[in-house]
Amino acid sequence: MQICVIGGGVVGLNIALELSEIKGSEIFLLEKEKFLGHHTSTRNSEVIHAGFAYPCGSLKAKLCVEGSALTYELLKKLKVPFKKCGKWIIACGNVEEAALHEVEKNAKACGVKDLKLTSVAEFYKAEPSAQNVTGAAFSGTSGIMDASSYIRALELALSSRPNVQVVYPCKVTGIDKMNASIETDRGPMQYDVLINSAGLWADEVHSMTCRGDDFQMCALYQIVPFKGEYYTWRKGKVLTMIYPVPSRFLLQASKASKASKDIGDATLVSSMGIHTHRNMAGELFVGPSQVKLTPDKKSDYSIESPPELFANELSKFVKDISAKDLEPAYAGNRPKLYKGGHPVGDFEIFKDGKIIHLLGIESPALTAAPAIAKYVGKMI
Ligand SMILES: Cc1cc2nc3c(=O)[nH]c(=O)nc-3n(C[C@H](O)[C@H](O)[C@H](O)COP(=O)(O)OP(=O)(O)OC[C@H]3O[C@@H](n4cnc5c(N)ncnc54)[C@H](O)[C@@H]3O)c2cc1C
Questions:
Q1: Which atom of ligand 1 approaches the CA of 11 most closely?
Q2: pLDDT for 41-64, tens place per residue?
Q3: Which residue segment(s) compose the domain that 38 sits in?
Q4: For ligand 1, atom 21, which residue shows the shortest CA distance?
Q5: Cα-to-centroid distance, 8 and ligand 1 (Å)
Q6: Domain count across the chain
Q7: CATH number at residue 16
Q8: How far is the CA of 42 from the centre of ligand 1 (A)?
């Protein structure tokens, strides 16, 4: 069985690894860039999420909870640097404290075992550079990894499998569903199974399958890049990962929006808010922002938001932050999926004949990738 995987990001690489276990499979992983993981997979917070922030019943929640455990196992096996350091979710004031209780309830309902509400004193002991915090929760299974090393280790693992070929640069330019073949800039190929894990471009790959009558159906999907920018704060004394309460829980707590119970509502699963994290080298980052770009700007990684935006947000709970101490670091674009003009909010993974499409694979897919791979494996 010849399986072609389009996209050499963390998701495509995990899928190739999983499917290479199928007896008699021949895997071709095709990546358009000169490097693997060049896009979203290495332009993120590098956080291994626990899975408490997503609506229970959503694919994001299920695959994040499963993926978190699988990711730790895989990183260990592949000798990729990681730290299970945990993360704080904090509240400032009554409304946010109520929202924090909703987070705890959601964590329990989604099967996240080790998120616990703590005393504020406990939080300040761990994080003396915080201020204004009136409520805190600690998520023990959250962690941090080196995403670039992860990508290289996955490539190495794949290169040791006799039935896998990782080909780059190789851009898929057309799909002929009738003949089960693809066009690439290095020539045509046949497939028995085709996986579209093209990240920000998965909508464009999906629309390659459309002809005549199909066309309207395919035009339904559009991926809109939402940029997340990061700044470094070299002088910063923050020791830990501190996240504000995700905004959807604030909506729930204040009963401001009935729509907040709807799994498909993208407001539920948008940015986790501007937070702090230290990468594996110990550098302190603040971010990410959330800036909607036009669909033609999928690989625009320029940093446009002013440092004041980040300093203002963080000064709500961190002491002594000043815009003049922040330096532009990097940006990554979230592949937000719209269907018929409406935001989807969850991963959309479906089969169309011999093709499996993965659309809207935004956060927490760095964490969920091995679970996404198993999910796809069951669809074959
Ligand atoms: C700001 C930000 C912060 C995030 N933080 C976290 C986090 O802390 N934790 C977490 O779990 N997740 C996080 N995420 C989400 C996570 O990074 C992504 O969901 C994940 O990396 C998606 O991986 P992917 O393989 O689907 O996409 P990508 O890494 O984009 O890979 C897709 C690949 O497909 C290739 N491709 C596209 N079209 C073609 C074609 N026609 N032919 C051949 N190849 C093609 C592309 O070049 C690309 O390399 C974050 C995302 C962002 C943007």
A1: 25
A2: 999 999 999 999 999 999 999 999
A3: 2-379
A4: 41
A5: 9
A6: 1
A7: 3.50.50.60
A8: 8
